[in-house]
Amino acid sequence: MSRKNIVEMSTKIPPGMTDWLDSIVLGCVTVADREYCENFKRYHRIFGNREDEGDYELVAPDSEKRVSFPPLNQAERPFFYAYDCFFTKLGITIPFTEFETEILWNCNLAPTQLHPNSWAFMKIFQLLCQELGVRPSLCLFLYLFVLTKVGTAKKKASWISFRATQGRKVFSIFNDSFHDFKNFYFKVRAVDEVHPFFLDKNKEPTFPLWWQENPVVLKYSLESLDKVERAFVGVLEEHWGEPPHLDTKKFLGDPTLLRSELEMASGSDSMKVLRKTKKTVAAQNLQRKTSGEGSSQVPPKKLGSGPQGPRKNIPTPQVRVAPTDPPLASSGAASSPSSAGPSPKRQRTSGAYDLNDKNFDGVAFAEEHIAPYGYVPTDDVSIRKHLDFISSTSVRMANLSAALSRKFKKSPVNTTSASLENAKTKLERAEGLRLELEAKNIGLELSLEKEKARATEAEAVANLARENYIQTYGELLRVKKKLQSSYYDYAELQEHIANGMTALYENLKAQVRVLAPHADLSLFSMNNIVEDGKIVPAPNEDETSAPNPKAKTSGAPSAETTRPEADPDVEILNGPDGVVGTVPISVIPTVPQDAAMGAKLDPL
């Protein structure tokens, strides 16, 4: 069956509804018929327990009836409309919980007037309260959420939603595009001779059965909450106050995931504060019970003359002191809004129980000494979960007991004692080793500190040596540069001296040619020396032997000392045997005048 919206305007709209209600709401026609309702009841979980299945029926409305219409026939049995997504997607069951009834009554809303996403907020809120052992309350929910703006003169009213109060967003929205529910609604009413849960003992509705023109917007501050509720808010803010927020759709689909999430967060500071606060408040309530003062929290009362008529009194937030003890009656069955419930039974004083007494009252003992320390929901769905938990836990405990019994039978008592003594000895030995290791650790820490000091000192010395090395290396570079400059100057000086000597030598040869034009100057060389009055080649350095210091020096002059000084009256001549001699100039033949005139003399 297609789930698209079917809009058809009816001609039998109750008077005045078109003035404040949007035409889309007035035009949504249901697709539910008799067969649809029968199959829906057969194949979907609608009721909290099976005993209620026969007390209520799902009825397809007439084709001209709309989800917002009140009953046109006053003789018709009381009913209210419900969307099928309440049961298929959100896990809501009939009868509504006390909390759900309280929200609808105080906000003056019919069940279908509230958007399914808001029902999802209510459901996940109750689930979280149940897992944390906190009683879901109107003021706690309306501290976290606030109703959106209802219809105005410019924009008529349609489905109303709860949104997170500014700065207090904790839960993510169930479905961002929840639009396929508007044509899938039906009536829920009790069968004959059954008192419906949505009527009190005076047969007055416990919540509005059809759409109301004036929903009530309530706001509560943190000061309106009691100690346990403030600690509960602390848990929400610590774990989901910042994105990512608590995943409403995920945890409604599988509540065990929420339980696992809370178990992982059980060690947080806010969780510890919540547990401590619950114990403190429970002890205070127990003390008040014992002294006969009763509980300090007043149960909420509904105000006004009824959801159908105008509300003359609007409930206002009030500061409450401490939470009451968990209600003894089931929260699944709605009680009268004006009744405060039965007075708590006076418990016996502590110490009046004997565990060895065969008539020991375990229930009374649990109510007095255990129940005050935690709230246990007792609606029909929770009771079923509790029974399943008890059954599975009992089976596991039986298996564990059998395993321990088998193990104990195999281990005699004296063996167990010996094992304990052995374990004690090992523990003492381990303690001694621990102390020894601690002493060694202290010694190693001292050695490490010394090594660190040495390393620091060595690092300082290394830095100083590095600085000295850099300075010395710089000096060496400067000296090297100077040496290279001196080397270049020395080479240039050598070249200059060699060039000067060569020029001097050539000048001397030119002068000799002038003085002795016919002289053989082939032996005139700087590589020759005069030895024993003769010109001979100079010996190589490796051929000359080192002089013997013991040899007697002759009085003959050396070649250098015997070289005749220049005499202006003689001319140097080469003999036929290669010996250069000197002859007087007067005996040398004269050169002809024309030859002398043609000769070009080298300047001196």
Strand and helix layout:
Elements (H helix, E strand, L loop, with lengths): L16 H4 L2 H5 L6 H10 L12 E4 L19 E5 L1 H4 L9 H10 L8 H17 L5 H7 E3 L14 E3 L20 E6 L36 H14 L7 H6 L1 H10 L4 H23 L70 H8 L10 H31 L2 H103 L12 E4 L2 E4 L32 E5 L5 E5 L8 H6 L6
Antiparallel strand pairs: 1-5, 2-5, 3-4, 6-7, 8-9
Helix pairs in contact: 6-10, 8-11
Can you describe what's shown?
The chain is mostly helical. The chain folds into four domains: 17-339 and 359-372, no CATH class; 379-405; 411-515; 516-538 and 558-604, no CATH class. The protein is built from 15 helices and nine strands. The chain has helices spanning 17-20, 23-27, 34-43, 85-88, 98-107, 116-132, 138-144, 227-240, 248-253, 255-264, 269-291, 362-369, 380-410, 413-515, 593-598, and strands spanning 56-59, 79-83, 145-147, 162-164, 185-190, 528-531, 534-537, 570-574, 580-584. It has a three-stranded antiparallel β-sheet with strand order 1-5-2. Strands 3-4 form a two-stranded antiparallel ribbon. The longest helix is centred in the C-terminal third of the chain and has 103 residues, at 413-515. The relative contact order is 0.07. The model is unreliable at 296-350, 550-564 and 585-604 (pLDDT under 50).
Summarize the structure.
This protein is mainly α and 604 residues long.
Q: How many distinct domains? A: 4
Low-pLDDT residue intervals, each spanning 5 or more residues: 296-350, 550-564, 585-604
Q: Strand order, biggest sheet?
A: 1-5-2
Number of helices: 15
Largest sheet: 3 strands, antiparallel
- The global form is elongated
Overall mean pLDDT: 78
Strand element count: 9
Structural class: mainly alpha
